[in-house]
Amino acid sequence: MEIIENKLLRVSINPKGAELSGLFYKKEELEYLWSGDPAFWGKQSPVLFPIVGTLKGNSYLYKSKSYQLPRHGFARDRVFEVEKRGGDSKTFLLKSDMDTRKVYPFDFEFRITYGLDENKLTVTYDIKNSGDDDLYFSVGGHPAFKLPLIEGTSYEDYYLEFEKPETAGRWPISTDGLIEITPLPLLNESTKLPLNKQLFAKDAIVLKHLNSSFVKLKSNKTERELTFHFPGFPYLGIWAAKGADFICIEPWCGIADPVDTNQQLVRKEGIVLLKPAEEFKRSWAAVLG
Q: How far apart are CA 30 and CA 163, in angstroms?
C-alpha cells in the first residue's frame, strides 16, 4: 500500500488498479472512504478505463474487428507502476502492452496522480496517445464514501446538494447494464437530492451534462460533510450496492452503451479521441469538512 499525507489527511492507494483505499481526516479522526466489505461490494474506488460502464455483449467493433472488454474496462485489475513519489503526492503509471492490445488495440500511457492540499484530495487522470494511430477511450472514477459518516446518524439523514439548481432526468439502466432511450424525472429546478437506499434498487442514477461542477454530501444532523468537485466530466453516476452503507459519486468521461448501440467504438456516446502524441487530463477532488 502506498501512503501520502499532510497535517490534515492520510490517503492510502493500492497499486493494483491505482485504487484509493483510505481517506482519513486526521482533524476529526474520521475515515471517509467505504471499507470495501466484500459481503456488499469488495471495491472502494476503482478506476474506469478504457471504457465506462457496460458494452453490449461486453464487446465493441473497431475497424471491422470485434473485441471483448468487461464492464468498466481493465485498468482496475492491473498493477500500476509507481512513477513518482512525494510526501503529499504520488503518480501511478499503466502502459499498453501485449495483453492490453489483445482486447484494446491502442498504445497509451495512463497516469493517475493523487495530491493533497490542506483538506483536499485531488485525483488527476492523464492519458497520452503513445502510438501512431488515433486513440479512442473513456475514463472515470468510482469512489465510494462511507454513509452515514458518523455514528448517531442514519443513511436517510444525508442528502446531495448540487452547486446550481438542476433539471435533470435519470437515465435508466437496463437489466444487461445498458442505458435506456428515455430518462425518468428526477430533479426539477432542485439543488437537493435526499438519499435513501431504495434510490439504487434498479442500479445507479445516471445524470448527463449537469450545470453544477461540484456537489456536497451533507446532513442537517452533523457538521461533517464532503464536497466533491467534478469539472469537465459530462456524466455523473450515483450508486450504492443493495443494503450497503456507502454512496458512490462517480465522475465520468464516457458512459455505458445505449440499448440501441451499433457497437462501433468510434461512434460511442462519450468516447474521447486523442491524436498521436496528444494528452488528455481531467481531475476530480474531494474536500473533507
A: 25
